[in-house]
Every structure is written in structure tokens, then in C-alpha cells.
Amino acid sequence: MNEIIIYGSCYGTAKTYAEALSKMINVAAVSYDRVSGLERYETIIYLGGLYAGGVRGMAKTVKKILPDTCRRFIVITVGLADPQDEKNIRNIRNSAGKQIPEVFRGRTEFYHLRGGIDYQKLNLMHRTMMKLLYDQVKKQPPEQWDAETRAMIETYGKKVDFVDLKRLEEIAEILGRKAGSPVLCPEIRAMKDTEYPLLKDFLYEAIYVPEGGAPPDRSILDTPELRVYLSGFGESESDCAAAAEVQGKVVGAAWARIMNDYGHIDDETPSLAIAVHKEYRGQGIGKKLLLFLMSALEERGFERVSLSVQKSNPAVRLYQRTGFITADETEEEYIMVNNLTMSADGAAVKRRGK
Ligand SMILES: Cc1cc2nc3c(=O)[nH]c(=O)nc-3n(C[C@H](O)[C@H](O)[C@H](O)COP(=O)(O)O)c2cc1C
């Protein structure tokens, strides 16, 4: 994988995180004002300090990135306010999101870390900004303080350090890598009949559980709505499945059949399901599985394939990247369709992504 970490740091906290992440996932980290050749990276991890809502150096950097090559843009913000606070997260994503061109928004992932501040080291402009802000917000009654205001009032004039490098382990894991582990090269192939029983586990993993939600009981797999994905799989002509194998283990699957599921659009169009085991996510395995499955379906003469996905599920981006477009929607879900004649190879998908 072609990746780089770029950091924007004025007083060193974002730089400390960037260098630690660099060691952890074995990807070079470069300051935004020294980076070049950005047009060749598929995954760009931008790690920057928050300054009045913006991410230091990010606006300049995104101008140098090419939409055709950069498929994944990961923004990790470093700020003083509590990065677990929902409202703070919304505010950061709103304002930082404005620095990101429209074309990248669908492929941007956000993570948030806490930095620090040392008022003795602030330059005159920053010190003045903080003073103006402090004078303004301290007039508000404490019950009106949001996480940002609270952090600023509590740390005003002091030296504080909330840097927690352990939080990077979570991010490295989300990025699909344990510290120091090599990038995996899965074999993507047709699933063997003998492996079809594995689809039950993959179907369970394919059930989207929003952040903080409890996973459903496995008995959910026996409901009629989910049984359609599995029962007698392999017996019907439309049944088609792809597997991702790593070191002899099937770690991901994508499968399709004509069925009356949530993604059903008509009786000629198969609908699909896909899942990759948690520890193997974030390495492009899902995309490879989808592309493989779509070419297999096209070879069998199907013109389209459809799916349903919850609007809040980050997999929506994967589907968009592989050429799916929204054909219909309910309050919670998108029904997405891919015209297979245009997605048989990567180049065609890319053309449509423009
Ligand atoms: C002028 C100024 C504005 C800031 N604005 C924000 C902000 O909007 N949100 C926030 O969480 N932290 C804010 N901070 C705190 C910085 O994001 C924090 O100090 C961070 O660790 C800086 O990263 P760096 O050390 O890599 O430059 C601000 C700090 C300064 C000096």
C-alpha cells in the first residue's frame, strides 16, 4: 500500500503523535511544509493540531492531493478539548470538513486526539488570540461551557500535556495494522462449496452495529429476513461468492444471489452481502472482494447488482468507491446499484468515480 503520514504542528504535540504512529505502522511521517510528491499516495494520513477549528496545514496540503490516486484520506486532529465529547467531535468535523474539497469528503475518515499547551511557548499572535477568546468566554456562566470552552478556561495560562500515545494503538488497529505488522496480501478467489457454511459467520459480521451499540444475539441469523442470505446457498444459478484468504484462513467474503432481501430491486438483479473479519479491515480487502464478485457476476451475464446499507455505516464510502450509486432510500438505508458492464475492471470503476 502506498501511504504517507503528513503532520501540521506548531508546538510539537501533533508531531509527537505523527512520529509515534510512523514507528507503529511503519509509514514515513513528514511535515506539511516539507512534503512533496503527494500525487502518488493512495492513502494519506493527515495529523494536525487544531487552531480555531481548522487543522494546521491541512488546507494547503489537500490542494496537492490528486483525487484520482488518493482513495483514502485519514484526518487525525489534535486539540485541547475532550476528543470523546460528541459535540466537540461534531464541531471539529464541521469546521475541519470545510477545509477538505468536496471530492475527498466521501473518502475521509476522522479520528481525534488530545494534545497540550504551554502558554510560555506560545507566539505573540497565538497568545493574543487565546487572551481575546478567554476574556470573551469567561463571562459565560460555567453551565453554558461546552468542552472546548471548558478546556480553554481550565488550561488558560498553564502548561498542560494530555498527549496519550496509547490512543494511537486504537487508530493503528482501525487502520488495519497492529504495531509493526506487515501489510497483508490476501488471495481473492471464488469461494469453494465446502466453505459456504462460513457465510453464516460472515453474515453475522455484516450486521452493522452503530458505535456504542450492543451487537445483536446470534439468533438474529434465524429470522426470515436474514435466512434468505444463506439457506441453500449454492443451489441457485445466481448464487455467487468470493473469498479473501490470508495464510490459509478465509478472512472475508462477498456473496450475491437473487433474493428478497432489503437490497432487492427486481427479479433479475442479485443483491449482495459482504464482511471482512475485524482484524483484517482497513487494508482494501473489502474493495478487492467487491471487484472480484462483480466481475464474476458480469461473466455470468448479470447486468446489475444491488445492496442495502444503513446510511450511518462507513461502508457506504466503499460502495461509492466501487461504482455503486444510490437508487432509492428509506429513512435509515440506501439501496445502491452497480451497473456491472461498467465495473468489470478497476479502470472502468475509476472512470466512473470521476
Ligand atoms: C490560537 C490557538 C487556537 C486553538 N484552537 C483550538 C481549537 O479550536 N480546538 C482545540 O481543541 N484546541 C485548540 N487549540 C489547542 C491546540 O490544538 C493544542 O495546543 C494542540 O496540542 C496543538 O498542536 P501542536 O502542538 O502540534 O501545534 C488552540 C491553541 C491555540 C494556541
Strand content: 15-25%
The rounded distance between the terminal residues' Cα atoms is 22 Å
CATH architecture of the largest domain: 3-Layer(aba) Sandwich
**Helix-strand sequence:** EHEEEHEHHEEHHEHEHHEEEHEHEEH
Number of helices: 12
What is shown here, in short?
This protein has 354 residues and is α/β, with parallel strands linked by helices. It has two domains: 3-174, Rossmann fold (3-Layer(aba) Sandwich), CATH 3.40.50; 187-353, Gcn5-related N-acetyltransferase (GNAT) (Aminopeptidase). The protein is 30% helix and 24% strand.
General description of the model:
The protein is an alpha/beta fold. The protein has two domains: 3-174, Rossmann fold; 187-353, Aminopeptidase (3-Layer(aba) Sandwich), CATH 3.40.630.30. Helices cover 30% and strands 24% of the residues. It has helices at 13-25, 58-62, 86-97, 102-105, 124-137, 147-155, 167-174, 199-206, 224-227, 285-299, 315-321, 346-353, and strands spanning 3-8, 29-31, 43-51, 54-55, 72-79, 108-114, 116-118, 159-161, 187-190, 240-246, 249-257, 271-276, 304-310, 325-329, 333-339. Strands 1, 2, 3, 4, 5 and 6 form a six-stranded mixed β-sheet that branches. It starts with a strand and ends with a helix. Residues 343-354 have low confidence and may be disordered. Flavin mononucleotide binds next to helix 1, strand 3, strand 5, strand 7 and helix 5.
